[in-house]
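[Automated response] Your request has been received and processed.

Submitted sequence:
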Amino acid sequence: MSNGPPPPPPPPPPPPPPPPPPPAAAAAATKALHLLPGCCSASHPPGAPALPSPPWCALRARQTTPEPPPQAPPQPLPAPPQPLPAPPQPALPQPLPPQPPPAPPPPQLVPPPPQLVPPPPPLVPPPPELVTPPPLPAQPLRQH
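Generated structure:
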């Protein structure tokens, strides 16, 4: 007697391969192929062994099978979305450019009329403070 664990049981045998399809299924597939127009005569009795098909029969079978519609060429994947541009920063107030000097007034086509009369002399004589009187001679004071 050993104190170790018992040996594991042997693995189960692999499953048997699937049986071949029954001859009736193969005959039905062959019969369907032979019922195409022009392949076999209509007098072919059902269930009879399949007659060898002429080579053009397989060609006709290929021509009569509807072909899948042609697939459109694969569309290119759309481009990955571009990252959104950063919002524009508010513009800093910039100093205004120097303004050009104002244009001189256009020359007058008609010159101003000349002053024919000279301006009149001032009517008020100049104030006496501006005229300096001659100095007075010194006189002795008289007593009464």
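Summary generated for your ticket: The longest helix spans residues 23-34. The helical segments are 23-34, 55-64.
If you did not submit this request, please reply to this message.
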